[in-house]
Structures are given as C-alpha cells and as structure tokens.
Amino acid sequence: MSTARMLTGDRPTGRLHLGHYVGSIANRVRLHQRYESFFIIADLHMLTTRNGRQDIEGVADNAREMVTDVLAAGVDPARATFYLQSAIPEVGDLNTLFQNLVTVPRLERVPSLKEMARDSGKEEMPYGLLGYPVLQAADILCVKGEVVPVGKDNAAHVEVTREIARRFNHLYGEVFPVPELIPSETPTLVGTDGRAKMSKSLGNAISLSDDPATVRRKVMGMYTDPNRVRADVPGTVEGNPVFAYHDVFNPDRDRVAELKRRYRAGRVGDVEVKEELAATLNRFLDPIRERRARFEADRGLVDQLIVEGTERTRAEVRKTLVEVRRAMGLSSAYTQVRRRAERYRKRAETAA
C-alpha cells in the first residue's frame, strides 16, 4: 500500500445507492488498497442543506448505515479510517483560515452549489453552502489528502481545493500536497424516473441495501420511452434509463446489444427488458447484501470503527493545524504577547 493518502466520503443523509456506487464508491473500493484511506462522514456538510433538529438527530444512525454500505461494497475495514467530521473541531479552524484564500466570485462559479440549493428547496444561497468547497478543502487538506475519487458533482469542488493548496503554499511555504482528482468511469447515473440524477431526496434511487423484491419493484416502475404504447412499436434506446442501467451493470455486452436492436425494431417489450435488468441488478447486489448482513450481525463493530477512526484522524488534524499556524506565523503572535505579559507580571511582583 502506498503511503500517499486518499480522502473521500459522503453526507450522512441516508443509505447509499447505485448512483453513489458508480460515482465514487467503485473507485474507493479499487483505490483503498493502494492508498492510506480516510473516509469522512460529512455531517457538517449536511447542515448546509439539511439542518433541522430531526436531521441532526438522525446523524448517528445514518452514519452507521453509510459506513455499513461502504464496507458492504467491498472496502476492507482494516485499510480504512472512518471519522465523523463534527467530532474534529480543528477542521473548523482550518476552514476559517482557508476562507481568506478564495473569493466570493470564485465560489459563485461552482455550478453544483446552485443545484444543491435548488434541490433542497432554498430560494437563496446560505452562507454555509457558498462556502461548501472551502470546508471541503479543509477536509481534504487537514489529513494532507493526495488522491480524491469523486463523482461529477464534486469535481469543481476539488478544483477549489487544489487552488487553495497552491495559494497557501505560495504565501506561506510548502505545507500541503495539491490533491489529484480521480473521476469515476460513469460520472452520473440517471434516476429511475429518467428526469434527474439518482438522489435519495428525489425518491428515484435504488439503494445498495434494497432487497430483491424492492429492486424488482423499482425497476418495473422505471421510466422508459413515453411514446411506446405497445411492444411492437419501435422504441428509443438513447436517454432510456433502463438501457442506461444495462450499459453500466450488465456484463453481457452482446445480450445488451441484442436487446437494443430488438427494442429499436419493436420486437421486445418493456417488461422483458426490465425483468432482465432487475435480475442483473440483483446479481450485482447479492454479494453486497451478503457482506452487509455480516457487518450488521457484528453489533457495535461499525460504531467502534467510527470512534477509533475519529480519534486517529483528530490526532492527524491537530498536527496539520500546528504546522499551518507555524507556517503562517500565527503561533508566534500569541507567544510574543504572552512573553511580554509574563515580563510585565514579574516586574509588577518585584515592585510590590
């Protein structure tokens, strides 16, 4: 395993889905054997769009579910450090220092922020959401992350991190690596409704933890070609989410090509294509379900992993913050004041 570090993670808003898998988790599974890997449970990021009391009260349960999903997907717990973002207050200190290294117009050019605000039903951009990429930079650089596997939505955020790292190093000396972005092979997976990316909040997702019957029900209700009223009517494959999923998850490329030919010619019905997709997805999810069941049976293991990982990460972040403050000269400012105060106190005691 390389000594280089990887940082990745998710917001604890519920169980992970197939969109998460193709967007970043597949990369994590592949890469975590090569890098020292930190997995953030980004509950502070969650607050930018979901900050009600009920949302916050659900963090612990959602964190457990999220970590279990990642482990079930194939991440080895012995090679991963899971940590809860809000339990490391030093990340907030680093975020504060980084805020001065990026401008508001630069952040306003990050396209996904407006999408996040819109999807969460916010008419105006909260200050915390505008600063989302800055906090993300603090997350990545606090452990000196060098590799960041991300989906399409977060690519622009990581570019802000790269800019902040370069800016800091230019001003104060070489402290941070400039992290490398590793995109997924399938940047975005359309939702089952065919209208947007797969999202828990939009109700168009197939979860990694869904049972076979649930997967089949969701697949059978998927959006297809609205102009195709009968099986003998030629259908459109392009933009059809059923075939988009076949392209990603069905390993039998010849069979997928055959289904597409028959669909375009009006010689196969939506039911048959969907039935085959449901079977394909369940075959893909079966080993994930089996691993999830094993981790769920070992009660308390996931909690222990989070606690141990958080304590270890906090120790690393504290070291980074000391280095940052020293490079910026902040450490010496209070030291100078304190020394003068100490001399003043001694003079006052002598005079008395």
TrEMBL record:
Where is the protein found, in the record's own terms?
Cytoplasm
Q: Which Pfam families match?
A: tRNA-synt_1b
Q: Show where the record puts the motif 'KMSKS' region.
A: 197-201
One GO cellular-component annotation of the UniProt record comes to: cytosol
The residues listed in the UniProt record as binding ATP, with positions renumbered to this chain, are: 11-13, 19-20, 151-153, 189, 197-201
Write out the entry's keywords from A to Z.
Answer: Aminoacyl-tRNA synthetase, ATP-binding, Cytoplasm, Ligase, Nucleotide-binding, Protein biosynthesis
* Entry keyword annotation includes Aminoacyl-tRNA synthetase: yes
Q: Which enzyme class?
A: ligase
The EC code for this enzyme is 6.1.1.2
Which reactions are catalysed by this chain?
A: tRNA(Trp) + L-tryptophan + ATP = L-tryptophyl-tRNA(Trp) + AMP + diphosphate + H(+)
Enumerate the GO terms in the molecular function aspect.
ATP binding; tryptophan-tRNA ligase activity
InterPro entries per the UniProt record, alphabetical: aa-tRNA-synth_I_CS, aa-tRNA-synth_Ic, Rossmann-like_a/b/a_fold, Trp-tRNA-ligase, Trp-tRNA-ligase_bac-type, Trp-tRNA_synthetase
Locus of motif 'HIGH' region: 12-20
Q: How does it assemble?
A: Homodimer.
Its biological function?
Catalyzes the attachment of tryptophan to tRNA(Trp).
The family note in this entry says: Belongs to the class-I aminoacyl-tRNA synthetase family.
User: This chain belongs to which protein, by name?
Assistant: Tryptophan--tRNA ligase
What organism is recorded for this protein? Answer: Micromonospora echinaurantiaca
Q: Gene name?
A: trpS
